[in-house]
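Allow me, if you will, to draw on your knowledge of protein folds for a short while. I have a record of one protein: its chain in single-letter code and its fold written as discrete structure tokens. Could you please explain, in whatever detail you think fit, how the structure tokens follow from the sequence? The record follows directly beneath this note:
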Amino acid sequence: MDYGLTDYDRLESELELTRTTRDTAFRGALLHYDSLLDGEDESQLPTLIGDVSFEQRVFPELAESCAWDWTCADSAAVRRSMSSAGTSPA
């Protein structure tokens, strides 16, 4: 069956939470990947990836007609292997 994913080698699932106001933007997401390639060891893929970013517009008092934007972002990945110390599961 053709799902139209011939150019992709991984299927991405994402849960995203965003909040945007006039002067701030927040984004938090959890991602999970599944391999679409036959024979690829999925224990080598990250089990869960977390991504968070925050952006804020700042209006300094000394520069009345100026606005500055700053962004803070971070990501982390967790991989859970089914085997230990490079051996196959028993």
Notes: The two ends are 34 Å apart (CA to CA). The chain is about 0% helix and 50% strand. Residues 84-90 have pLDDT under 50 and may be disordered. The chain has one domain: 10-78.
